[in-house]
């Protein structure tokens, strides 16, 4: 009780004794969070009273510590400096500090005011996560960051490279499949390297067959029919010949990835020639396209039809029939 009363009296006396014209100087000190902050106040020769104050709180009177904060101390080993040490510096330490000394023979105090700035690296603490949505939906991207100085927040599509927005919130109205990709939020304030976080925007849409390739091959050769489709989720591929689903047997192989299906014929036979339909489907829809496996000859020989089958017998029968009809007609005219 007596100690508390004594301190109150001391503060009143301190203000009363040091009030007067005096001298006031100002200095700026900047450190990063976690670093050591030292406020260096030059000792006045013959000064009878010294003190460190933080705003309205007394930290030290002379060498006596009044602050309960363990991180705050006087720098030792310096005869010509009355230096305040804060280690490590934290964001809440930012503010004004006063070094007050009463020169001998003067009523007013000489005061040096230190403005301590504690710079804090940028930190992203709230950001939109991965999004999966359908085409024509409205999407909002949000990114919040802290730091000192206040960070500048930027959004950018990085895969594939795209637009950049210098703001913390971005609205993407009526998104299309071209808007899908990886987006990055970055927060920078110059204290350290920017803070970065990424999210993936996935746009769902029904399949669209983007490319089909037929093939030509002679008997015994290798042939490949190719079907490529774009879709999200990735499509499932199914092959049909006429109304029958193609199965991987009878000399046929199937190789499929997320966006492409290959129908392979290692050893083409007459039974393989024909028209094949590729169907790509997912939960949102279906798309189909036809491929033709034909004989490799660009010019059909007299003995092959479009499927490569022998046709000389059919051609000869047709000519013979025409010849018989012509003879019959000529006989009727002769009569």
TrEMBL record:
Keywords: Disulfide bond, Glycoprotein, Immunoglobulin domain, Membrane, Signal, Transmembrane, Transmembrane helix. One of its GO terms (cellular component) is cell-cell junction. This is IgLON family member 5. It comes from the Eukaryota. PANTHER family: NEPHRIN, V-SET AND IMMUNOGLOBULIN DOMAIN-CONTAINING PROTEIN 10-LIKE 2. It is found in: Membrane. Residues 21-99, 122-202, 206-294 form the Ig-like domain. The chain crosses the membrane at residues 316-334. It holds the Pfam family Ig_3. The keyword Disulfide bond applies. CDD domains: Ig (cd00096). InterPro entries: Cell_adhesion_signaling (IPR051275), Ig-like_dom (IPR007110), Ig-like_dom_sf (IPR036179), Ig-like_fold (IPR013783), Ig_I-set (IPR013098), Ig_sub (IPR003599), Ig_sub2 (IPR003598). Residues 1-19 form the signal peptide. It is a single-pass type I membrane protein. One of its GO terms (molecular function) is cell adhesion molecule binding. Its main location: membrane. The keyword Ion transport does not apply. GO terms for biological process: cell-cell adhesion.
